[in-house]
């Protein structure tokens, strides 16, 4: 005797139907126009217009007066001091930033979180407060100031104090740019190079440095721009001594307060040019960094 059985087919999961590609810009055209118009207006008022006014005031008495203002001995001294300070502070931050990023990204050790916190400290402290710290350290009534002065060493109200203050407020830039980049890259390539017999310095020069070169240049660029434009900390430790401890930002303030408006805007135009060059170089380096990042396939 044969018993007929009926089997109920199991339900088959429906194959997901791909969603039709749709335009992500779902906002009405009027809303998009208002948002774009607001952004352009904001940039024009707060970025473009001030730059135009700086250059217009700088050349208001002609090119000859502009060049004469820049060739003034006090202006040349301020430009030279700004360049020297930037070179020294960027060089120190370059060494520190690479070493700190290497240690944080490649190794595990006690105090790692504390080191990261110290690197971020200048971002959370006012530059004026940073300058006051150096006054408390190296001033005539400071912690080590009397001992240094007794030995003929002058730091406060001199070039060393300007370099120290600038280095302090700018040292996060290189490290903060390299730390996430090195963490993203990992340490597999370095471990492979060491396993093949490469030494530590060879590994750094031939493996690590090529991988971080664009991020390193990006950090140096931002560090240099901040070093040349630093005002708060440098203003506190410089003493505003005419012709000796004035960087370009300080000289702009002095000339403006003395109603030498065209001369002050002439110096300010150099800082504005630095900002434009930094912006262009920043855009180029960002594109290079983006091209160098590994892209995951969806």
UniProtKB/TrEMBL annotation:
<keyword id="KW-0764">Sulfate transport</keyword>
<dbReference type="InterPro" id="IPR000515">
    <property type="entry name" value="MetI-like"/>
</dbReference>
<dbReference type="InterPro" id="IPR005667">
    <property type="entry name" value="Sulph_transpt2"/>
</dbReference>
<dbReference type="GO" id="GO:0015419">
    <property type="term" value="F:ABC-type sulfate transporter activity"/>
</dbReference>
<feature type="domain" description="ABC transmembrane type-1">
    <location>
        <begin position="79"/>
        <end position="286"/>
    </location>
</feature>
<dbReference type="InterPro" id="IPR011866">
    <property type="entry name" value="CysW_permease"/>
</dbReference>
<feature type="transmembrane region" description="Helical">
    <location>
        <begin position="114"/>
        <end position="140"/>
    </location>
</feature>
<feature type="transmembrane region" description="Helical">
    <location>
        <begin position="30"/>
        <end position="56"/>
    </location>
</feature>
<comment type="function">
    <text>Part of the ABC transporter complex CysAWTP (TC 3.A.1.6.1) involved in sulfate/thiosulfate import. Probably responsible for the translocation of the substrate across the membrane.</text>
</comment>
<dbReference type="InterPro" id="IPR035906">
    <property type="entry name" value="MetI-like_sf"/>
</dbReference>
<feature type="transmembrane region" description="Helical">
    <location>
        <begin position="261"/>
        <end position="285"/>
    </location>
</feature>
<keyword id="KW-0472">Membrane</keyword>
<comment type="subunit">
    <text>The complex is composed of two ATP-binding proteins (CysA), two transmembrane proteins (CysT and CysW) and a solute-binding protein (CysP).</text>
</comment>
<keyword id="KW-1003">Cell membrane</keyword>
<feature type="transmembrane region" description="Helical">
    <location>
        <begin position="76"/>
        <end position="102"/>
    </location>
</feature>
<keyword id="KW-0997">Cell inner membrane</keyword>
<keyword id="KW-0812">Transmembrane</keyword>
<keyword id="KW-1133">Transmembrane helix</keyword>
<dbReference type="GO" id="GO:0005886">
    <property type="term" value="C:plasma membrane"/>
</dbReference>
<keyword id="KW-0813">Transport</keyword>
<dbReference type="Pfam" id="PF00528">
    <property type="entry name" value="BPD_transp_1"/>
</dbReference>
<feature type="transmembrane region" description="Helical">
    <location>
        <begin position="152"/>
        <end position="175"/>
    </location>
</feature>
<protein>
    <recommendedName>
        <fullName>Sulfate transport system permease protein CysW</fullName>
    </recommendedName>
</protein>
């Amino acid at each position: 005797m044969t018993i007929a059985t009926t089997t109920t087919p199991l339900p088959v999961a429906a194959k997901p139907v791909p969603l039709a590609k749709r335009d992500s810009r779902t906002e009405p055209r009027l809303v998009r126009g208002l948002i774009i118009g607001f952004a352009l207006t904001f940039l024009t008022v707060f970025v473009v217009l001030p730059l135009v006014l700086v250059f217009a005031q700088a050349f208001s008495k002609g090119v000859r007066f502009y060049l004469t203002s820049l060739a003034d001995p006090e202006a040349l001294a301020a430009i030279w001091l700004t360049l020297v300070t930037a070179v020294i502070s960027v060089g120190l931050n370059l060494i520190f930033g690479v070493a700190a990023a290497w240690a944080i990204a490649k190794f595990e050790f006690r105090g790692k979180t504390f080191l990261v916190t110290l690197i971020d400290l200048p971002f959370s402290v006012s530059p004026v407060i940073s300058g006051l710290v150096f006054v408390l350290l190296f001033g005539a009534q400071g912690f080590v100031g009397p001992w240094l002065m007794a030995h003929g060493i002058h730091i406060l109200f001199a070039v060393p104090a300007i370099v120290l203050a600038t280095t302090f407020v700018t040292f996060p830039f290189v490290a903060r740019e390299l730390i996430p980049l090195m963490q993203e890259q990992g340490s597999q390539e370095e471990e492979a190079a060491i396993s093949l017999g490469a030494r530590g310095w060879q590994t750094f020069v031939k493996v690590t440095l090529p991988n971080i070169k664009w991020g390193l240049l990006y950090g140096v660029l931002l560090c240099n721009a901040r070093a040349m434009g630093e005002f708060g900390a440098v203003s506190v430790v410089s003493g505003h001594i005419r012709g000796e401890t004035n960087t370009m930002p300080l000289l702009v303030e002095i000339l403006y307060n003395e109603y030498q408006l065209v001369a002050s805007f002439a110096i300010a135009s150099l800082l504005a040019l630095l900002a434009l060059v930094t912006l262009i170089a920043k855009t180029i380096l960002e594109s290079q960094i983006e091209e160098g990042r590994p892209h995951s396939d969806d």
